[in-house]
Amino acid sequence: MIFFVIFSLLTLCIIPIVLSVEIADRKGFAPLRWILTFGWIGTIVVLCLPSARSAGITAQMSARRAATANMVGAWMCGISLGLLGAILVTISVFFSVRSLTRDRLQVHAAPAVHVSLVSTITTNGRVEPDLNHVRAYFDESEIGKLAIGQPIQIKWDAKQGHIWNGHIERIPVTVINLGTRSVGEVLVKIDDPDGKLLLDTNVTVTATVSSKPNALAVPREALHLEDGKPYVYKVVKGGLQRTFVTTGTINLTQVAILSGLEEGNLVATGTANGQPLQEGIPIKVVQ
């Protein structure tokens, strides 16, 4: 490899320069005008020019030949320098762009899309003695989302894949302590009792507290808060733009956007290397 580089430098650069300068000097031209003249092209041109030291020519003819040759050499040298400068600028721009592309913050993003968005709360419960009701215990922070008539799904580990449907018949009127939790008791009416649930069985109760069939939504991890105001990082022209939004229904994976975004807008959900999202730096969206 080193031998190839040395050979290339000698063949394409050094040898033609030395020959061009030597030939120009022997023909009575200014040697420095022929240092950078397109390599072998310059060598061929200076070789073909009539010599200013030919026998039998007058001093005036010699001076004219030397002046012409020096002008041609200067012209070719100027073009060579211009091309060399253009090449260097192009290489510099190429590597600068490549560096910027390589150094872009790699961002995961997802589009805002319309989905059927359901928000649920899951807790534990116990089957009542009449086998038609379940007493469920919801955390104090969730009580405000509950309402009479909200649909309920009931699951029992002993009956994998079986779901009982019901609805909230009574909401909490007070808060009690259940171990380390502050909870409210909710009475759930089982709408499709089949006698398979046993007395005092521990069951899982899931309440549907809101449902929006055609909500514009983004992944929940795309949502951020600043002084209580929700915002997202929208992908705009190869960068991130902090965009404040109005949110609606929120579940474990998605959040409804009431205003601030349009369908198809890309929002950042995180970075590939764990760096924080921020405005003002170039990004690259990755899978």
Quickly describe the structure.
The chain has helices spanning 2-26, 40-48, 59-102; strands at 105-111, 113-127, 133-139, 151-155, 163-170, 176-178, 181-190, 202-219, 224-226, 229-236, 239-244, 246-250, 254-259, 266-271, 283-286. The protein is α+β, with helices and mostly antiparallel strands and 287 residues long. A hairpin with a 2-residue loop joins β9 (224-226) and β10.
Q: What is the percent of helical residues? A: 25-40%
Mean pLDDT value: 87
- How many β strands by DSSP? 15
Distance between the termini: 38 Å
Main β sheet profile: 6 strands, antiparallel, barrel
How many separate helices? 3
Low-confidence parts: none
Measured on Cα atoms, how large is the radius of gyration? 41 Å
Write the layout of secondary structure elements.
Blueprint: H1 2-26, H2 40-48, H3 59-102, E1 105-111, E2 113-127, E3 133-139, E4 151-155, E5 163-170, E6 176-178, E7 181-190, E8 202-219, E9 224-226, E10 229-236, E11 239-244, E12 246-250, E13 254-259, E14 266-271, E15 283-286
Parallel strand pairs: 1-15
Antiparallel strand pairs: 1-14, 2-3, 2-8, 3-7, 4-5, 4-8, 5-7, 6-7, 8-13, 9-10, 10-11, 12-13
Helix pairs in contact: 1-2
